[in-house]
Hints:
The chain is an all-alpha fold and 94 residues long. The chain has a domain at 19-82. Helices cover 73% and strands 0% of the residues. The chain is built from 3 helices and no strands. The chain has helices at 2-9, 19-47, 51-82. Helix 2 packs antiparallel against helix 3 (51-82). The protein is elongated, with a radius of gyration of 20 Å.
Amino acid sequence: MIALVAERIRPERCPLADADSQALAELVARRRQAGEMIGMEANRLRQARNSRVQRMIRANLKTLEAQLAKRDREIREIDATVRGSPSGGLLMIS
């Protein structure tokens, strides 16, 4: 049944994303994940009472914030390249 419908309407094929677009999508996803982890660690820090645990959490936060800043730079670099392509760059990534 589905094949019959597809045959009749002939949907347009969507082109596969190029390497830069795929890299950009992965970096955006990883940036989002890092932001979520920062939020979780910040919550843990507010709950931690032990000074050693607090130091560990602060170290994790520092690392995650550095990674977030690095992802931002990488995203800007790749996005500048992708925006020059027909796909339009970051606005096309969901």
